[in-house]
Amino acid sequence: MVNLSNITKNDAAYYESMVGSGGNTSKKSLYDRCPFYELLKDRNSEEYKMFIKVYKTMQYILLDREKLVLNKIYGVDCDIKILSKIAKEINVTPERVRQIRYKANVKILRELREIKIE
């Protein structure tokens, strides 16, 4: 079992604000950048560390391919890569990488909403 005690409600809310609501895209264009891209510029910031703490704790629900994609996008244990580079590595289109990223973040957000965080 995964230890979720290191995630607070504030951590979960911050993660959600960075990746989006995971459902309502009516106000956002597909081409708008997600807020987390700003975090990636300073991987030593407290905000980045909080974001990655939530991601690393919740990645147990992801498939291997979803973890691979998010690890490369977020720069977890590797350099940060853009969608087109990841797409070449896993032999799919950049659009498919975006879809995998979106699906993985929706899974994390759903799980965060379902668990009881103190």
From TrEMBL:
What is the protein's name according to its record?
RNA polymerase sigma-70 region 4 domain-containing protein
**Organism encoding this protein:** Halobacillus campisalis
InterPro entries given for it?
RNA_pol_sigma70, RNA_pol_sigma_r3/r4-like, WH-like_DNA-bd_sf
